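Human:
Care to share another protein and its fold?

Assistant:
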Amino acid sequence: DVQLQASGGGLVQAGGSLRLSCAASGFIFEDYIIGWFRQAPGEVREGITSISSDGSTYYKNTVKGRFTISSDNAKNTVYLQMNSLKPEDTAVYYCGALRYRWRLTLPTNRVDYWGKGTLVTVSS
């Protein structure tokens, strides 16, 4: 049974930090890349960052320099460290597993497995 479990969301003031976790089970972690996606109120879900099993990463410009994705392959867990948070980062954050070829574009319709979202609220 494939599962992705995202956690770590919460309420934080602008300029603050949060760390999200995505624990994966039930599939071969090395066969997929893990992406973080977010969906703000009234907006479409978008991919913001990804990490491959070899450690290579991708960041969308809107989060580059503020967010850091990392992984612990032994624990099948991916982390998203979010610093210098802004009110516009407010969204439900999801992790998803995709095939390697989608690591730079992160199309939501190519996600094979989704985790439940975790809400991040950044107050001004």
In short: The longest strand covers residues 18-25. Residues 43 and 79 are 24 Å apart (CA to CA). The two ends are 40 Å apart (CA to CA). The chain is about 0% helix and 50% strand.
